[in-house]
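Protocol step 4 of 6: structure prediction from sequence.
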Amino acid sequence: MRRKKILFISNKATRNGADRILINAVTYLDRNQFEPLVLLNTDGSSREEFKSLASTHLFYLDKPGKFSTLIRYFLPFVYTFFKKRYFHSLLSRFKPDVLYINTISQNVYVQEALQVPVRKVVHLHEIDFSVMIYFPYRWVNQLMQAADHIIACSGAVRDFFLRNFILEENKLSVVYESIDFRRFDGKMPTVTSYMPERRTPDEVWIGASGQPQFRKGTDLFIEIAHLLMTSQLQKKVRFFWIGGSTKLHQDAYMHTMRQLVKRYGLETEVVFMEEKENLDEFYQKIDIYLVTSREDPFPLSMIEAAYYNKKLFGFRVSGVPELLAQTQGTIVDVVSARSMAEALQAYVQAGELFQFDSKAVVSQIVNMEYAIKNIEKVL
């Protein structure tokens, strides 16, 4: 039987969010039924991982190098012309049955994909202000209308798009963002320890992960730490944020965040670390996982922390409550550093930290082996 050919279009090649979901999907895709090919719009840290899973393509002018950079920035029309030709050449050679568009970004490949008479599946990983402010409404609406089927990564994402775009309900299905549990079952590569030792046996460690940015509430994370440190809390507390590239940690926003840490005198209490391939040590050692996002469709890191049976705290925003409600997590109704600090203080002050069995829950509802079956149904 002929295998159905799926061309996956990824906007970036990071190890975060939508890109991680695409890696998981390609990993679990039934090779007896489907033949995957991955097309990366930009280069990034996960390109080699994609290449190990499927035939992966990157336009030569998107590869690192001074010549490529000069062409992209000083001859954009030339760059776009040849990138379009590259896309159509790939289509003529691969002849895909389905274009799987893993982004709502208005990049060259997605724009060209809308002109091709091939079934299109769009996977949504965005919500709220990230959609309405950062992407032209006319473009997103055009993409939604051109899609033959749309996958939303949470119920909140589905409801947001149904409210703000003219879509039939049966055109959307929810497939929760899911993780590859094999990454956390002792099969991750051994690395040198990057987490410090506890300063006292009863010190409470509060962790967060993801790209440090305003949307993720990095400033709230620091403010919460400050409020807890200046409260009447009897126990010592330390905060760890892990995630983001070297470039991101050197940008203007992170410079400001480090200045905020310094202003509060929290240089040893709030620790920022760049992204790690192996997160097992981080999740093993923290006691509480904190989601400070102002909006977040359905954070992968929240799922990962739940898999490690960590106590979860998050704001009632976007898709965050959908998992917290099923894992005994604490949902704070108001996006406020003070409200979150008070909730954390009450929990930590209560004494012994409770053990939660949330692994069983996430293993059922956000397991990639289950999610891929629902994705395959719409291909």
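Step 5 (inspection) to follow. The radius of gyration is 22 Å.
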